[in-house]
Amino acid sequence: MAMTMTQKILADHAGLPEVRAGQLIRAKLDLVLGNDITTPVAINEFEKHGLSGVFNRDKIAIVLDHFTPNKDIKAAEQSKQCREFAKCNGITHFYDVGQMGIEHALLPEQGLVAAGEAVIGADSHTCTYGALGAFSTGVGSTDMAAGMATGECWFKVPSAIRVRLTGQPKKWIGGKDVVLTLIGMIGVDGARYQSLEFTGDGVAALSMDDRFAIANMAIEAGAKNGIFPVDEATIAYMKGRVNREYQVYEADADAPYEKTVEIDLSELRPVVACPHLPSNTKPADEVNDIAIDQVVIGSCTNGRLSDLATAAEIIKGRKVAENVRVIVIPATQHIYREAMRLGYLYTFIEAGCAVSTPTCGPCLGGHMGIMAAGERTVATTNRNFVGRMGDPSSEIYLAGPAVAAASAILGRIASPEEIEQGGN
Amino acid sequence: MQANGTVFVYGDNVDTDVIIPARYLNSSDPKHLASHCMEDIDAAFAQKVRPGDIIVGGSNFGCGSSREHAPLAIKSCGVSCVIAKSFARIFYRNSINIGLAILECPQAAENIRQRDEISIDFDSGVITNKTREETYQAEPFPEFIREIINADGLLNSLSKC
Questions:
Q1: Ramachandran category for residue A368: left, alpha or beta (phi over 0 → left; psi -120 to 50 → alpha)
Q2: Which has fewest Cβ within 10 Å: A184, A365, B1, B26?
Q3: A316 with A219, same domain?
Q4: Which of A24, A49, A142 sits opposite B98 (nearest CB)?
Q5: According to DSSP H, which parts of A253-411 are helical?
Q6: How many structural domains is chain A composed of?
Q7: In-domain check, residue A352
Q8: B60–chain A Cβ distance below 8 A for any pair
Q9: pLDDT given for residue B159 in this prediction
């Protein structure tokens, strides 16, 4: 029976010759991930049930990235609990302040995920690693606890939507524009319980950072996972990072898809997702009369080096608008150092931006950029739900780094073309 | 297994950020989570809800983050079941894994109104609206999931293996 790429990975990890959509399976895991919010709940479950130890100390990653550097005493206690658990169980891949980065930028960068692997993480954006041709999906803390103890997880095998990408994107179009456009087309539950399998000759035109941003937001369409085929760019990315054998899977030519969505990358325009759903997508230049109070450039979606490069290109030699607070957050220590070496951080600070150590902080309304009542942010993050970044009456406009940087300069939602045309 | 209670109705796409805002995730204490449950869409919920009460949502209930704190907050308020047109997948499995009963039933979600009194028979999947004298049929849980819920969560079911 023909299978999708996701189904093939799941079949192999379940030790089955084939699986079909809807089937309940138990699959072996190559990595189990948690962060400083979700791991304490998993540890409590782990200890409450007297589980004796972890299945493999090299196949668990604990990253303290959400409320770190710790924002208050309770958050510090949660980090301490993770730290002690990691030490007690000899967890190899434990990342604390100073080494840590935002988990979904950090794990691929450190080579902890490779093509063909099966990964669960107690964080919904674990679906990011589909960019590497892996099966990865977000779960809760109890699944994390069970995964740490047994190295396995139960899954309902997903059906799939094929997203066929064609054409070459224009300048300033990045992965965020692709995925926001897709979510605008299919809705926030358009891929609920399903895989989003990306195909087509347009894939080759997307950088790995673009693919990470796209797979990252598969969850925002309700998907179980998003996955890209493995090509030269994927293999080049893994080279020097992944030092173990990995397997490249391809969907069967006659694999079953529930439907196919076509996106011509050459037709895309810079977009924003207006409050309060990621599917509320509009071209940036159609909403460019909306004044803003804050801009956040960072997160597991768009805090990578090429995102900072794009923002720096627009901001270089300019000043951020009066009365706008601009917060730039490189996603990992490596990205931070590279952005410093390449002069991006200097550009941001010269322009009047605040540059932060890696943290998820403002994206989930934790710290480092919380909004007051009625305030408005343009953010390169992934969710614009009510109250996500502060007061329930505040508003979030999601965008890629080019729109965010242009908006920072003009003090309102702006397309990067406006800057090029001398908007400042 | 049965549930009886008064209904709180919400719309489509109730996300985990409104079920339990992230600013309260610096603790996983069930009482702390319960006291802030649904705060950003229904500030009085935590005061109004009584043990056994039932939440009814529209489509894609529980979308957003993977925080298990969301079903934990709902369960810790004493809510006996969440009924919705459909659920986001991580919320669905988290609810099952912690032993919070949830049922997909579009017919119930469309017809039940705020403060209706309903009862649920989990074995048959029959939902009875006592206020409107109507019944709705939900899919009962598959055997695999029933085992986890009956054991009061995934880890209890594992330790029984």
A1: left
A2: B1
A3: no
A4: A142
A5: 299-302, 305-315, 333-341, 344-351, 401-410
A6: 2
A7: yes
A8: yes
A9: 63
Of B26, B64, B94, the CB nearest to A383: B64
What pLDDT was estimated at residue A223? 98
Between CA A331 and CA A301 the distance in angstroms is 9
One-letter amino acid for residue B92 of the chain: Y
Would you call B89 an interface residue with chain A, using a CB distance cutoff of 8 Å? yes
Tell me the Cα Rg of chain B: 15
Rounded CA separation B109/A92 (Å): 47
A378 in Cβ contact with A407 (< 8 Å):
yes
A224 and A82, same structural domain? yes
DSSP SS3 for A379 = strand
- For residue A224, pLDDT over 50 is answered with yes
Q: Around A134, how many Cα atoms within 13 Å sit in the side-chain half-sphere?
A: 28
How large is the ipTM?
Answer: 0.94
B71: nearest CA partner in chain A = A140
Q: What is the pLDDT of residue B148?
A: 82
Of A10, A67, A57, the closest CA to residue A37 belongs to A67
Instruction: Give me the sign of the Cα torsion angle A114, A115, A118, A120.
Output: positive
Contact (CB<8Å) B13/A277: yes
* Exposure letters A65-83 (e unless 16+ CB within 10 A, then b): bbbbbbbeebbbebbebbb
Are the Cβ atoms of B60 and A41 closer than 8 angstroms? no
Which residues form the domain of A336? Answer: 274-420
- Is B8 within 8 Å of B53 (Cβ atoms)? yes
Q: What is the mean pLDDT of residues A244-252?
A: 98
One domain, residues A315 and A241 = no
Cross-chain residue pair B158–A138, CB shorter than 8 Å: no
Please check the confidence at residue A1 and state whether its pLDDT lies above 60. yes
Pair A65, A36: CB distance under 8 Å: yes
Residue A99 pairs in a beta bridge with none
**Dist. CA A106–CA A394, nearest whole Å:** 30
Q: Among A67, A123, A140, whose Cβ lies nearest the Cβ of B97?
A: A140
List, in sequence order, every residue forming a beta bridge with A294; answer none if it has no partner: A325, A377
Run of H or E including A234: helix A232-238
At B106, give phi and psi (nearest 5°): -55, -40
Pair of tokens at residue A6: 């996701």
In the block, which residue shows the tokens 């969850």? Answer: A219
| Cis? peptide before A69, omega within 30° of 0 | yes
Q: Which two tokens stand for residue B117?
A: 């009194």
- Decide yes or no: CATH 3.20.19.10 for domain B2-160: yes
Encode pLDDT of A360-384 as tens digits. Answer: 999 999 999 999 999 999 999 999 9
Q: Rounded to whole angstroms, how far apart are CA atoms B97 and A143? A: 7
Does a structural domain hold residue A269? no
The length of chain B is 161
A34-72: per-residue pLDDT in tens?
A: 999 999 999 999 999 988 899 999 999 999 999 999 999
